[in-house]
Every structure is written in structure tokens, then in C-alpha cells.
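An instance follows:
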Amino acid sequence: MRIAVAGALAQRPGRGGHAWVFLQYLLGFKRLGCDVVFIDRLEPEMCVDGEGRRCRAEASLNVNYLREVMAGFGLHESWAVLVDEGRDSIGIERKTLTRFMNGADLLIDVMGYLQADDLLEAAAQRVFLDIDPGFPQMWFDQGLHDPFGHHDAYLTVGANIGRPDCPIPTCGIDWIATRPPVVLEHWPVREPRSCKVTSVATWRGPFAPLEQDGVKYGLRAHQLRSLIALASMTRFQLELALDIDPADGRDIAQLQEHGWRLVDPKTVAGTPRSYEEYIRQSAAELMIPKGMYAQSASGWFSDRSVCYLAAGRPVVAQDTGLARSYPVDKGLLLFSTLAEAADRLCSLQQDYLGHSDAARSIAEDYFDSDRVLSGLLDEVGRC
């Protein structure tokens, strides 16, 4: 099969975890014997050099980062960045890309990022992949933005969308639940080098809070503020590779005063390889979702957390309605309140090896890219 994956990677250089979102699909489909291509796009205002100054796309930090990411995983000739409003490309030449898409069996369009109509229409099947459940559906429902376009099938990592107790609107779409894949061969289990419980996260992220039917759905910042006391309630060192603006100085001070250790994500996890190493140096993850995911009980599970699980690192996760989909007693531990979070960390300390073994088993049984992507192909093939 010929499969194209479209998404925004070059816009976020220096974020290794974000790069892994797309690498899991590209490398996972390659494992299944597929011919893959990644398609990105850059507008002139997005292109900067190493000093943050505007520059031509060809010479930009953005394109260089994407090039290095792809080359690092044997995908040297498998990427294209659309420029000049989609009329030209860097990487794969535009004419060659058009020929590939004319023979493509499937396009995975992450969050509807691909805007080139000729490429969209060329693929035999177009699939919208929602990795931020709640936001695009509420944008559409409120008339703020239509991210969905014309696709043949719609996938979401929000496993509970469409259930009566999930308030996220379906927008008249028959959503197919999927899971974030992890290519297990890239995440071997090794003994952790520290007793730190970590995570890699943004404080606010690119989206604003949303209000729907009288409920305000917040961001990760709102969730973290309710857990500030947690670091003083556990023997683990809690460390966040946190992308937070200096303007949020009061929150930074509060976190540090309560015992949280903050590190620069671009320093410790700026490339896919350093991101891998950061996870391996951790004992476990504290997964704190955006308020949107938790408040809506969307069933969202983090593409970052599947990497921790695969590496044998247990995940203590704020609940997003996960118990319907996954085992949550060993390796993956859920909490809803501050007291529950402290209790789950205590449980982790009492039987770390048991939780570590269970974490890898969950990754193998539920998130292995061979299983997830084979199932994805079967599902969309029935559409």
C-alpha cells in the first residue's frame, strides 16, 4: 500500500515528543510493508532561522529540523513540505509528490492539516485523524471553524465520543475510535536511571479554553494548579519538562515552592532521540491531560504515555474515562483527585517492578503499532 500522513511537524522544531506522534505512524506503516510519505506545509511567517528571524523556507530552522528528524529514521526521501501556498514543495518535488498521491491508497490527514485540494482529492481514501478530541468538535458545533473538510472516514483517539455520557458533540460524524500506536522496537525496556516521575508537557498549548453548554473546558494549566501540593505528598521527585511562558512566573514559583522540579523540554527532549532518553531515565510518568480531555471523559490517551508504557515505565494518569478501554490496576493507575494521585504514587513505590512489567504488557496488548495500524486499515477499509 501507498500511505501518506499529513500533519504539522516543521512548525514545532525542538519538540521531540511531537515528532514522535508522526513517526509512530510512518514507521509503523513501514513495518507493515507500506510505502509512506509525510506531507507538511509552511507559510512564510512560520519560517525562522536559528536566531528566530524570518527567512526563506529552504534555509529555515523548520525545514532543517524536519529533514534531520526524517533522516534519523531512514525516511530521507519520504517527506515533503508544501510552500508557496502549496504550489511548490521542499523535499520530494511537487510533481513527484502529485504522482505518489495519484497512486496512494490512503491519506491520514492529522487534524485536517492538508490544504492542497489536488493532493486531497488524489488519494483513493481520505481519513481525518483527530488527536485533540473535544476541540475540533466544539469549534465546529459553535461555528468557529470547520476542520473536518471532506474525508471518507473520521478517526479519533477520544474513545468515548458518541457515548451518552460524553458531552463532546459528534457533529453528525460517525467517529471511529483508534489508539495512539507505538513502534515497540524503538522502546526497549531498560532499568531506569533515576527515581524521578516525569512528564513532557505544555502549560497552555496552542488552543484557548472553550465553553460549551455552560461548562468551561480548560487546559493543562488548570489541571496542574489543582495538583500543586502533590510533589510534597510523595517520596518520588516530580519533574516536568514543561513548556511554560516566563509570563506565567507566579505559577512557576508556586510549582517550585511546592517541590516540583521544572526543566526545559527543548533541552532534555528537543529531538526524538533525546525524548527517548528522557523517558528511559524516568521511573514513571505522571500524566496530566488538558482539562478538555478529563472534564469531558473523552477517553483520550496520550501518545506520550504509550512511549512510557512501552519502555516499561508505569503511568499514573488523571482519568479521562480510560477504565472502559484499558486495564487500570497495574502499570496504568488512574486518579481524579489530589488524594488519589498521592495514593497511586504510593502504590507505585510499593511494587515498582510489578507495575513496570504490567506497563510493557499494556503497551504490547493495546498500543503495539502492528495491532493498532492493522486494525485502523481494517476499519477504514469497511467505510
Summary: The chain has 14 helices and 16 strands.
